Amino acid sequence: MLQQLARELAEGAITAQGLLSSLLEKIDRHDGKIRAFLAVEREEAMAMARASDARRAAGKPLSPFDGIPVGVKDNIVTRGRVTECASKILKGYVSPFTATAIERLHAKGFVTIGRLNMDEFAMGSSTENSAFQITRNPFDLERAPGGSSGGSAAAVAAGFLPAALGSDTGGSIRQPAAFCGLVGLKPTYGTVSRYGLVAFASSLDQIGPLTHTVDDAAILYDTIKGHDPRDSTTVLDSRYRKWEGNVAEVRLGYDPALLEGIAPEVRQAFDRTLAFLKSQVKSIEQVALPHQKYGIPVYYITATSEASANLARFDGIRYGYRSTEAKTLSEVYEKSRTEGFGTEVKRRILLGTYALSSGYYEAYYGKAQAVRALIQRDYLNAFQKVDALLLPTTPTPAFRLGEKTADPVAMYLSDVLTVGASLAGVPALAVPAPSEGLPVGVQLVGPFFSEELLFALGRLIEKEFPQKKAVL
Questions:
Q1: Pairing between strand 251-254 and 388-392?
Q2: DSSP strand E in 416-458: where?
Q3: Comparing 48-57, 163-172, 403-412, which segment has the lowest mean pLDDT?
Q4: How far is C-alpha 450 from the chain's CA centre?
Q5: pLDDT for 361-417, tens place per residue?
Q6: What is the distance between the alpha carbons of residues 105 and 65, in angstroms, rounded to a whole number?
Q7: The predicted structure's pLDDT at residue 241
Q8: Bridge partners for 389 per DSSP
Q9: For residue 39, what are the β-bridge partners?
């Protein structure tokens, strides 16, 4: 889609302003029922589109994609624009700086538009934890679009945007991609700067694209990746590997144990995808990821512990929400955080604080990090035998809104197949799989810096099994 829009812009068939206007019209017509946007930011986006058209008229576009709109999840900051992380505690916060990923989009002329809804502080799997509104799945308005990047996924699936950025901590790009019939990439940890991404769990968070096609995901990834001196966890550009292999020589693996307990339609989609790939690659081999079964407890101890530390800064003192009922300093802290944070955020702060507390640190956080190392070793061992892995993305298709909100553990288990790659830091690409009803996804997981290999495999699946389109 991005390449087609680039051609039309280059040929003069469309203008950046005309493209943006058509998307804004569709948002106005349909987002009242989807609720993907927290804010559309029309004036800022139109100013960027006018500047893009002026550059093209002067023969100086910044890139072939100059003028193409991209949506932004509400936890990635832009200078002078509001960023709230879908939380009352940051309501009205205006960022004084711009995230590196956004700077790199702007450097290529992409038009960033809107703030897309999300689970508060990226904590959730359904976008029902937003302080402001619930986003609905464009394929079925009674179902969740996934989370925490549900607003980004819903906006792209509904055709409001050609692409959007989300963030993935334990599956928050890949799970919404599966629920909404999209492509979603969690890059290798450290390839995309986290500067300007409001932190949830710093050792896990990664910005990545949600798109209609694998090529579009590759374009956005190539745009936003790269070393950033402002983020010490980004890797040097020399670490990237250019894949020039042939998919016919690829050894693909899967772990049969991970197929237990998944919904029949997910299993059927996985089996059809695996059967197709068997005719395309060198071999399909079984591998074992024995510690993946501990992924959920390891992830939720790690993520909540890091969240309790990262969210300590939201205290009613420096910026954001401050309770009007507070009379003393201790009440400012207590009442502001009590009133400003939602239920799920409070739950995770409490869990993380407990896991890090004196007397429990080694029993919980320390043990979780030891098992995390074993999970990472499982992946490294698997990649000694195969070049990439195929897994289902989610255990079920999109569930109904309200179905899991009363049972946090049931909600957490929707990430059971995605947290492993996050804990290991390896890249994972979610792509739509064949299904008769609601969208279903599979994910390709590879070694560090193997994004190009995953894109090549993803293109095969995409070509064989065309993407479903939502009808609004």
A1: parallel
A2: 428-433, 440-445
A3: 403-412
A4: 18
A5: 999 999 999 999 999 999 999 999 999 999 999 999 999 999 998 898 889 999 999
A6: 10
A7: 74
A8: 253, 445
A9: 115
Q: What does 326-378 look like in DSSP terms, one character per residue? A: --SHHHHHHHHHHHHS-HHHHHHHHHHHHHHSTTTTIIIIIHHHHHHHHHHHH
pLDDT, mean of residues 162-171: 98
304: pLDDT confidence band, cut at 50, 70 and 90?
very high
Domains and CATH numbers, the chain: 2-239 (3.90.1300.10)
Cα–Cα distance measured from residue 398 to residue 9, given in angstroms and rounded to the nearest whole number: 36
Give the chain's mean pLDDT.
Answer: 96
Q: pLDDT at position 237, please? A: 83
Residue 36 has pLDDT above 90, yes or no: yes
Q: Residue 302: enclosing H or E segment and its boundaries?
A: helix 295-310
pLDDT band at 319 (very low <50, low <70, confident <90, very high): confident
> What's the token pair of residue 271?
């089996």
Residue 440 carries which DSSP code? Answer: E
The residues that are catalytic are: 73, 148, 172
Quick one: DSSP state of residue 441? Answer: E
- The candidate with the shortest Cα–Cα distance to 188, out of 457, 424, 370, 386, is 424
471: CB partners within 8 A, 6+ apart: none
Nearest to 187 by CA among 426, 457, 453, 415: 426
Cα gap 435→465, rounded to integer Å: 9
| 3-state DSSP assignment of residue 309 | helix
Please, are residues 456 and 243 in contact by the beta-carbon 8 Å criterion?
yes
Residue 111 near residue 16 (C-beta atoms within 8 A): yes
Residue 131, judged by CB atoms within 10 A of its CB (0-12, 13-18, 19+), counts as buried
